Amino acid sequence: MRVYLDNNATTIVDPQVKSAMDPFFSQYYGNPNSLHSFASDTHIDLNNALEKIYAGINAPKQDSIVVTSCATESNNWVLKSIYFEYILTGRKNHIIVSEVEHPSIIATAKFLESLGTKVTYLPINSEGLIEAQSVRDNITDKTALVSVMWANNETGAIFPIEEIAEICKEKGVLFHTDAVQAIGKIKVNVQHLDIDYLSFSAHKFHGPKGVGALYMKKGKELTPLLHGGSQMGGHRSGTLNVAGIVGMGKAMEIAVDAIDFDMPDVKELRDHLEDELLKIEDTFVVTPRQKRTDNTMLISFRGVEGESMLWDLNKAGIAASTGSACASEDLESNPVMEAIGAEADLAHTAIRFSLSRFTTKDEIDYTIGVVKEAVIRLREISSSYAYTPKNHNSQL
Ligand code: 7TS
User: Fold this and answer.
1) Ligand 1 mean position to 393 CA, how many Å?
2) Nearest C-alpha to atom 5 of ligand 1 is from which residue?
3) pLDDT, tens digit, for every residue of 352-388?
4) pTM tops 0.85, yes or no
């Protein structure tokens, strides 16, 4: 059996999304900006797809959603443009990010630090959550931007975006949220919250890879990173990825409906997996269930090296993760485990299971069996693990 439980890294393309994209490779392949019918053949579908993307986050028409190549580009764009517009010009000198942002935010913030920007990295608490008060405490009159993700990719922890957005509005500071792990899992409504910028990537919600977007509130448009043509209203040059945009539109439409119709089933499967794995002694889960996305679990098995567990799982056909795929070549401990201050012997044992609406009960039951066997095998050969009766299972 092959079981894919790494849906926070990427997801299967929904067959309906693939069918919607198919005609735009070899049939309707015109460049939408050309002046002939091969171009205009694409226009209706492009507009429909953009409408679905706007509707998916309830963005009003006057705001901008600019299609990018991925959330990494969107995240880089926000931070670097803030640097060009506010920091390089001397108007402000400071940005705030959380210490558990995706590397596309952290590495960009570090790059801007090397150019003289002051950066505050907000800590997470022992539940893996950001406290909104810490945003308030760190804003100064020189702060240009706060960037805090909506949901964390490792733990699924949902951050207090509404409160943070309100604080930023009150203080007159721009607010960006990386909503990559929120779309399709949490209702994202940019009109209910005071969000200036929001990033997402289609392949995290059963759309294609290589297409994402940056939402920008009216009047908050940013300096383009890619100069050239007039595509995307001049915000981002480059020939439009027509199939990608059509795919992202379809994927968004389905993902938003799936929050009500499929997520409860995903949660039931995730909870079943979690309940069964927590029956293993000395096992810990980060972030209380009601405070994280319904598809995600970061679990530590004391004495079981994360990479060894992944090896056993992979041999049995099961895909999980020890951390973001973007950093998985390094044998480092999980960054979120480090940030919550977990003991060193636990920080190396975290495994992320992330489910999707395509995950089945049979797959979860099979996974439970494989994990239980792997924990026994790996603890037997562990030099550091010795079971003592006082060991217990808990929420970290
Ligand atoms: N932001 C978050 C919160 C993410 O989880 C990811 C990818 C990205 C940005 C970048 O998305 P991309 O489409 O530009 O690559 N996160 C992961 C992960 O958790 N495991 O692999 C990739």
Assistant:
1) 30
2) 153
3) 999 999 999 999 999 999 999 999 999 999 877 876 5
4) yes
